[in-house]
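[recover] target loaded
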């Protein structure tokens, strides 16, 4: 017995020593790794690094590599130094702008972006937290709490406009969004989803079943799982905004049978635009159509697609009588109500057999194209990156792994043989480089919806940005033309000009079918939530002659490459500027 006890004691002593040794080795390895990372950060922050060890890169340098999760929304001013990379080799003058040089340069830029992103990612979380705290507020609720109601996702009662903000949703934010669109009720669910409507849900639930805290407001309740916290929007606030949000769409020839075309109507002496718009808003229709003293409500349909508008003078007599020649025409107004026939979206129920990319240079309208595709097909689009701002606004595919094949296509700005050959096919979206460069520069310094300041445009960052990104615009197209297996080339300008034909072509490329009414709904909601409000005019020309000469050479190179692959060349408006 004593001998066995002695052996056990000896074994335990050896085990204790072994555990002590492994713990010490683990701590030493961790310390070495920490020292190595600290040394890297110190090198990156040093301004005395020699030219052959570091390369100054503008803050906008976040567009050519694998690692842009598009969370780089708020770059800090001033150049950054990227360590461990050789300076880009300056080619001979006669080799510049050739396809081979552009591809080589693009590869180098991608490597630089990867290094830049890994340094930046450590600072990202504090920046996001600061932005969240700035946006968070405990405002008093403007409406009256009605109660907790059950919510059926298959047949919603509040089926007006739908909004998501998975990080900053508050009761006030939802109420204001619904008031802007003239809805009577605002309902919140899952702590982050907002629904608007003019009719209360039929079945009430127990108050304690609405137990989800608002994502952007601690202590406030925003519904629950299949439960809605419903508020009645303040009447005076909603009434004031109804009149302001009515948009004149134009004069159109009236359909032969208006009562069959439009589901709701009203005949009112001394009918005004406000009367008709308010009537149609309460009925939850996006269009208010006026002919004389007749008011009709409905949607754009095959019978009434809102294409081919007539001269406005033909509608000038419709106030007097609908029986005259002028009565064959009607005035159409867009109410604040959202067209919801195409807002339902979901993930694919089975994995897609074809892995499709939606590829573009940054600033070329990729987010807008995703909005159009999602609403046309009813399926979410994925992303090679993760952009919290897009995810918070309802692009739920942002958080889904980009290789899950649960999305209809995957956004990417990548180029290079390896990244391209991962996809079976691709929609290649191309935009005028002048517009793309300006759009991406605005996003870098002011987010998806803002504008860079004049100070940004006149700083050293802008010419550095153009010099770096202009070549990437060209090499991105050249790489996809060279390595893409099956391509559909779409020009942003063509999509904007002929939305329905081009969108239908994109949907067919994705092997999907879509009804005409759904396409008309997409056209009615064409802008989405990420369109900058108008073009901010600058009192100076941002592109110098040297920049124009550089960009024009890239344009000619890309145009020649497209035609060489039997694709349509670049639109005429691209060259020369």
């Amino acid at each position: 017995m004593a001998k066995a006890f002695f052996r056990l004691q000896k074994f335990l002593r050896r085990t204790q020593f072994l555990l002590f040794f492994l713990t010490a080795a683990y701590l030493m390895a961790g310390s070495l790794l920490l020292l190595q990372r600290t040394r890297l950060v110190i090198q990156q922050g040093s301004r005395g690094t020699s030219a052959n060890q570091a390369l100054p890169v503008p803050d906008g340098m976040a567009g050519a590599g694998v690692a842009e999760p598009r969370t780089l929304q708020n770059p800090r001013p001033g150049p950054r130094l990227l360590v461990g990379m050789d300076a880009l080799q300056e080619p001979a003058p006669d080799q510049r702008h050739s396809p081979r040089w552009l591809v080589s340069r693009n590869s180098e830029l991608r490597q630089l972006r990867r290094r830049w992103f890994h340094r930046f990612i450590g600072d990202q979380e504090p920046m996001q937290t600061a932005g969240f705290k700035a946006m968070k507020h405990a405002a008093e609720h403007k409406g009256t709490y009605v109660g907790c109601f059950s919510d059926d996702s298959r047949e919603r009662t509040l089926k007006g406009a739908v909004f998501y903000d998975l990080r900053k949703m508050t009761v006030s934010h939802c109420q204001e969004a619904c008031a802007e669109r003239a809805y009577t009720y605002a309902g919140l669910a899952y702590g982050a989803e907002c629904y608007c409507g003019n009719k209360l849900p039929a079945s009430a639930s127990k108050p304690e079943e609405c137990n989800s805290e608002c994502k952007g407001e601690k202590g406030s309740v925003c519904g629950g799982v299949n439960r809605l916290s419903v508020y009645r929007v303040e009447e005076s606030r909603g009434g004031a905004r109804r009149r302001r949000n009515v948009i004149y769409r134009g004069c159109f020839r009236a359909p032969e049978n208006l009562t069959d075309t439009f589901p709701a109507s009203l005949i009112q002496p001394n009918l005004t635009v406000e009367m008709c718009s308010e009537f149609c808003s309460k009925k939850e229709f996006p269009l208010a159509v006026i002919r004389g003293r007749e008011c009709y409500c409905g949607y754009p349909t095959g019978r009434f697609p809102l294409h081919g508008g007539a001269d406005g003078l033909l509608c000038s007599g419709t106030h007097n009588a609908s029986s005259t020649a002028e009565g064959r025409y009607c005035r159409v107004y867009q109410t604040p109500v959202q067209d919801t026939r195409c807002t339902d979206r979901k993930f694919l129920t089975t994995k897609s057999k074809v892995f499709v990319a939606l590829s573009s240079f940054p600033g070329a309208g990729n987010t807008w194209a995703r909005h159009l595709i999602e609403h046309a097909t009813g399926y979410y689009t994925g992303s090679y990156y993760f952009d919290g701002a897009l995810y918070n606004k309802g692009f739920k595919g942002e958080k889904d792994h980009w290789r899950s094949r649960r999305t209809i296509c995957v956004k990417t700005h990548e180029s290079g043989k390896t990244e391209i050959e991962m996809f079976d096919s691709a929609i290649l979206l191309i935009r005028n480089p002048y517009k793309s460069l300006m759009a991406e520069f605005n996003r870098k310094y002011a987010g998806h919806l803002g504008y860079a300041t004049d100070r940004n445009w006149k700083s050293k960052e802008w010419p550095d940005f153009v010099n770096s990104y202009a070549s990437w615009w060209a090499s991105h197209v050249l790489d996809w033309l060279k390595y893409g297996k099956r391509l559909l080339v779409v020009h942003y300008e063509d999509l904007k000009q002929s939305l329905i034909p081009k969108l239908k072509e994109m949907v067919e490329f994705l092997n999907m079918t879509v009804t005409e009414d759904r396409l008309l709904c997409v056209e009615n909601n064409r802008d989405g939530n990420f369109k900058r409000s108008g073009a901010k005019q600058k009192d100076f020309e941002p592109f110098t002659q040297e920049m124009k000469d550089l960009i024009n050479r890239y344009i000619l190179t890309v145009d020649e490459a497209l035609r060489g692959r039997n694709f349509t060349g670049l639109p005429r408006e691209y060259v020369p500027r």
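[recover] notes: The domain at 356-531+543-564 is CATH 3.40.50.300 (Rossmann fold).
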